[in-house]
Amino acid sequence: MLKDKRFDEILGMDVSVRALEIAAKRLKIDDLPSFQADRIKLIHGSLMYRDKRLAEFDAAAVVEVIEHLDPPRVKPLLYVYRVLLTGIHLMRIGKVESNLRTLNASARLSYLDEVIDRKLSGPEKGDLPKADIEFHEKAYERLVADREAASKTSTLPEVPSGKAALNDLLVRVRLREVRL
Predict the structure, then answer these.
(1) Interatomic CA distance for residues 113 and 14, integer angstroms
(2) Of the four listed, 66, 122, 148, 160, which is most buried by Cβ atoms within 10 Å?
(3) C-alpha distances in angstroms, 129 versus 115, 117, 118, 126?
(4) CA-CA distance, 150 to 85, in Å (whole number)?
(5) Average pLDDT, the chain
(6) Cβ proximity of 75 and 115 under 8 Å
(7) How far is CA 35 from the centre of its chain?
(8) Residue 147 in contact with residue 91, Cβ under 8 Å?
(9) What would the pLDDT profile of 115-132 be if each residue is shown by its tens digit?
(10) Which pTM was predicted?
(11) For the segment 161-178, what is each residue's pLDDT rounded down to a tens digit?
(12) 136 to each of 18, 63, 76, 140, how far by Cα in Å?
């Protein structure tokens, strides 16, 4: 990602300070030229909570999340599926869809409706049985591979072209909210 000039800023976030220290060493940030090092920020936090530091970012990648949930919970697992399936759908179809049941109509993941039902019928933060973790980790790996394959054949442009129009829309909406 660092070599890709389309990314103005690359942010790494983790709940573990130690993991951030390891990432900094592996990235050799101190050895990078300043024009590259200045684009990288490593911060302590979690995507599971609202964080103002993330407000200006266009995208987030959720990597190796399932095994870190303690206890493993249904809601964050569904979030991971939503992110992956939305990305696959966007790459293949060119439109954003985030409804998991709609996405699953084409993904055909036989187990996903059951996980959705478990969340809807139980407590909002219901636990995921330990036996399910390995299964979902393997499903995650398959979906990541599907997303990569979809990315290679996608007809979406390499660089978004509507950033200025989106910014203009957001400014107008925010100004309207301020007047209310």
Answers:
(1) 29
(2) 66
(3) 11, 15, 11, 10
(4) 11
(5) 81
(6) no
(7) 26
(8) yes
(9) 888 888 876 566 666 667
(10) 0.57
(11) 787 888 888 888 888 776
(12) 26, 13, 12, 6
